């Protein structure tokens, strides 16, 4: 039966019953009029008014009901006058009843409507949440304490290649890495009494994909349950592994560089000592050894710079330096190789370049050496030219060769590491490092090459106060903290005969016998008395001992990396002893280290050192530092 027909049937049937009740009250049993009216009211309210949803239609039904039972009875039909007197009272009462019903019904229908809308929204939100969880990129499964499956999404079914009926059995076949415990056993061992926080169950390998399983305690369908999430962590673990490997490589490079610098430092110092004592016939060979150690030092510097760039610790040190001398030293170092290959080396250094410019001279020297080394490597005949010109706004530096040249298709690759797939060596390191150094100096390395004719590598340095007249100014101030780059021109002008030889003023703290021997011979040959210790703990004791004897040290050459107590910790203790009044005089402590990273250098200053020397260290730099404090 159609819906409208049902409504009409119910309405008609109730109307018949109401008519029967009214007839009974009028003609059969007038004494039961109140009972009959109550019955009719109940039938009308609970049946007729529920047939129609509209408020106004139901209002008409109520008005009809009130009129029938209030205005048509025996008394009104028999006594017209009394009817007229009672009519006004009945009318007021009827209107009041209708108003009460209207207010009640309107409020009820509003609440019903609000409840209905809320259910619709809740149903829509539930559907949206279900759709979201169903296609969520992580696998989701909800189980109660009895391991009854409450929910599972499609993602987990695809990961495990199982449906909702076989999922629990599938969990028994999955084991975490490095363990013989299956996932289902781990879920069964979970404790619902613990706080609701993420608990990792471990990592599994499913079809060569790594997934991390974790559990949370949640409320699901008024029951305590566990939400198990399955997340693909293959990429994350791969990135973490690569990052860990990079850190290990960086640490290895730093360590290797440090260990290589120490013997080179000793070799250089011994060679410097032998130069003044050797016969003429071996002088040239010693010079060649000196040049080779210098070139090796540049290569070690490239490795360390690459390590610092990879770890984000690379920094430039712009100080006053004689750029012309740095460039001439590059030509001197490369001249032996050029002579051996029968090449002519042309060095054009513009005299208009000021003697003192502010730039990271060591890094510029490293770039030029890399360019000269490449020119020597790929040039078999002809010449190599190093040119530096003061253009008025900057210094233009170039290295030109008559070598084999570079094919056009390779010009975009020469600055990249391992660009030649046929060669796994570090041949690309020099240019790669050089380009990055110049980028940090605000310059760009450009190349022009013709295959079979040669190449030109060039860059420009924007240097403040580049005009030559600025070099004639009298700089009378003195730098309190020595810099890494000591001015070569100033070093060569020092008269070492002015050192006081009557008092031991220098303490050498180094765990390497070779370094202590070389430093000691250097100081002794220049009339400087010294004392040696092998670790930081002995250095602290010697400082206290000699301070109490009223023979304080003026300067300490402190190796940073020593056993028992390193140089940084020893410097802190010496500084604290001075602050606390244990010693009266605080020596000037110079760090001696092969580490040049930003953090290591900062540790020197943080510990209380007034400067540092990088290994390998030329004699001139060591003596120049000592001359400031002895």
Automatic annotation (TrEMBL):
<feature type="transmembrane region" description="Helical">
    <location>
        <begin position="54"/>
        <end position="72"/>
    </location>
</feature>
<dbReference type="InterPro" id="IPR036890">
    <property type="entry name" value="HATPase_C_sf"/>
</dbReference>
<dbReference type="Pfam" id="PF00072">
    <property type="entry name" value="Response_reg"/>
</dbReference>
<dbReference type="Pfam" id="PF00512">
    <property type="entry name" value="HisKA"/>
</dbReference>
<dbReference type="InterPro" id="IPR001789">
    <property type="entry name" value="Sig_transdc_resp-reg_receiver"/>
</dbReference>
<keyword id="KW-0597">Phosphoprotein</keyword>
<dbReference type="InterPro" id="IPR050956">
    <property type="entry name" value="2C_system_His_kinase"/>
</dbReference>
<dbReference type="InterPro" id="IPR003594">
    <property type="entry name" value="HATPase_dom"/>
</dbReference>
<dbReference type="InterPro" id="IPR005467">
    <property type="entry name" value="His_kinase_dom"/>
</dbReference>
<dbReference type="InterPro" id="IPR011006">
    <property type="entry name" value="CheY-like_superfamily"/>
</dbReference>
<protein>
    <recommendedName>
        <fullName>Histidine kinase</fullName>
    </recommendedName>
</protein>
<keyword id="KW-0472">Membrane</keyword>
<feature type="modified residue" description="4-aspartylphosphate">
    <location>
        <position position="559"/>
    </location>
</feature>
<feature type="domain" description="Response regulatory">
    <location>
        <begin position="505"/>
        <end position="630"/>
    </location>
</feature>
<keyword id="KW-0812">Transmembrane</keyword>
<dbReference type="InterPro" id="IPR004358">
    <property type="entry name" value="Sig_transdc_His_kin-like_C"/>
</dbReference>
<dbReference type="Pfam" id="PF02518">
    <property type="entry name" value="HATPase_c"/>
</dbReference>
<dbReference type="GO" id="GO:0000155">
    <property type="term" value="F:phosphorelay sensor kinase activity"/>
</dbReference>
<feature type="transmembrane region" description="Helical">
    <location>
        <begin position="87"/>
        <end position="104"/>
    </location>
</feature>
<keyword id="KW-1133">Transmembrane helix</keyword>
<dbReference type="InterPro" id="IPR036097">
    <property type="entry name" value="HisK_dim/P_sf"/>
</dbReference>
<dbReference type="InterPro" id="IPR003661">
    <property type="entry name" value="HisK_dim/P_dom"/>
</dbReference>
<feature type="domain" description="Histidine kinase">
    <location>
        <begin position="255"/>
        <end position="465"/>
    </location>
</feature>
């Amino acid at each position: 039966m159609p819906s409208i027909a049902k409504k009409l049937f119910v309405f008609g049937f109730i109307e018949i019953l109401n008519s029967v009740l009214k007839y009974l009250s009028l003609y059969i049993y007038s004494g039961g009029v109140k009972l009959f009216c109550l019955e009719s009211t109940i039938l009308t309210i609970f049946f007729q008014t529920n047939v129609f949803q509209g408020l106004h239609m139901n209002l008409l039904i109520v008005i009809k009901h009130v009129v029938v039972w209030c205005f048509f009875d025996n008394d009104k039909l028999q006594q017209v006058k009394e009817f007229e007197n009672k009519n006004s009272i009945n009318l007021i009462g009827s209107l009041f009843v209708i108003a009460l019903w209207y207010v009640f019904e309107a409020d009820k229908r509003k609440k019903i409507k609000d409840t209905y809308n809320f259910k619709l929204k809740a149903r829509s939100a539930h559907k949206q949440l279900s759709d979201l969880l169903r296609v969520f990129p992580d696998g989701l499964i909800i189980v109660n304490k009895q391991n009854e499956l409450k929910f599972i999404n499609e993602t987990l079914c695809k990961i495990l290649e199982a449906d909702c009926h076989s999922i629990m059995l599938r969990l028994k076949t999955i084991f975490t890495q490095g363990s013989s415990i299956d996932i289902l056993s781990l879920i069964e061992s979970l404790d619902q009494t613990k706080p609701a926080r993420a608990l990792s169950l471990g990592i599994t390998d499913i079809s060569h994909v790594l997934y991390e399983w974790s559990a949370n305690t949640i409320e699901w369908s008024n029951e305590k349950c566990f939400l198990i999430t399955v997340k693909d962590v293959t990429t994350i673990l791969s990135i973490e592994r690569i990052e860990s490997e990079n850190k290990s490589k960086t640490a290895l490079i730093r360590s290797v560089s440090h260990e290589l610098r120490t013997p080179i430092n000793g070799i250089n110092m011994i060679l410097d000592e032998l130069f003044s004592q050797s016969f003429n016939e071996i002088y040239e060979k010693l010079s060649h050894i000196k040049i080779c150690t210098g070139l090796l030092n540049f290569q070690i510097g490239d490795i360390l710079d690459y390590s610092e760039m990879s770890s984000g610790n690379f920094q430039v040190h712009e100080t006053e330096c004689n750029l012309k001398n740095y460039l001439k030293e590059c030509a001197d170092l490369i001249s032996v190789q050029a002579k051996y290959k029968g090449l002519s080396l042309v060095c054009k250094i513009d005299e208009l370049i000021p003697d003192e410019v502010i730039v990271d001279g060591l890094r510029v020297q490293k770039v030029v050496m890399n360019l000269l080394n490449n020119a020597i490597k790929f040039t078999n005949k002809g010449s190599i030219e190093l040119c530096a010109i003061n253009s008025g706004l900057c210094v233009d530096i170039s290295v030109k060769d008559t070598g084999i040249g570079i094919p056009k298709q390779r010009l975009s690759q020469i600055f990249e590491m391992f660009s030649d797939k046929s060669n796994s060596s570090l041949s690309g390191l020099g240019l790669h490092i050089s380009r990055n150094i110049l980028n940090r100096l605000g310059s760009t390395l450009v190349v022009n090459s013709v295959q079979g004719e040669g190449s030109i590598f060039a860059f420009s340095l924007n240097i403040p106060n580049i005009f030559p007249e600025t070099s004639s100014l009298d700089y009378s101030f003195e730098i309190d903290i020595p810099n890494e780059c000591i001015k070569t021109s100033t070093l060569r002008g020092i008269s070492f005969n002015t050192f006081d030889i009557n008092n031991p003023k220098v303490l050498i703290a180094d765990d390497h016998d070779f370094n202590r021997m070389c430093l000691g011979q250097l100081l002794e040959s220049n009339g400087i008395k010294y004392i040696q210790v092998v670790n930081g703990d002995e250095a602290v004791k010697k400082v206290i001992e000699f301070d109490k004897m009223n023979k304080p040290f003026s300067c300490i050459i402190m190796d940073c990396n020593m056993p028992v107590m390193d140089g940084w910790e020893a410097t802190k203790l010496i500084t604290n002893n001075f602050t606390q009044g244990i010693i009266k005089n605080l020596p000037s402590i110079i760090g001696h280290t092969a580490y040049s990273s930003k953090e290591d250098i900062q540790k020197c200053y943080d510990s209380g050192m007034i400067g540092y020397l990088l290994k390998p260290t030329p004699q001139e730099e060591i003596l120049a530092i000592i001359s400031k404090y002895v």
